[in-house]
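Marked as duplicate of an earlier ticket. Keeping the data here for the record.
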Amino acid sequence: MKQILIFNINVGKINILKKICEELSIRIVPISRKDYSQKLGYLASIPGFKKNNINYKRSELPSEMLVFSGLTSDDIDEFLASYKKSMLPPINLKAVITMYNINWTPEALYSELLKEHMKM
């Protein structure tokens, strides 16, 4: 299933993202702060991942983040081109769910992406 998990994105931007994704047959999945203790595999509804019983009690992620699941590189390129055409401000932290990060929490992925972004 082609989907994009979205974190800490305001409603106005979500509505535009939904329009972009509808045209590309991509599902948008807003992730609420209470679910930040779950593994990315669970949040993306990947078989074999179960919900854990840990309540997330920390604050919201400091900035926006997108996580792609089930998209090919062509799908991602098409999405990014459409996003750029929309004239929305960029979302700097983006990732694809991989075998390396599928067991990470959103907070762990955010931390890693932020480190990478700061190096660039």
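See parent ticket for discussion. Residues 12 and 18 are 10 Å apart (CA to CA).
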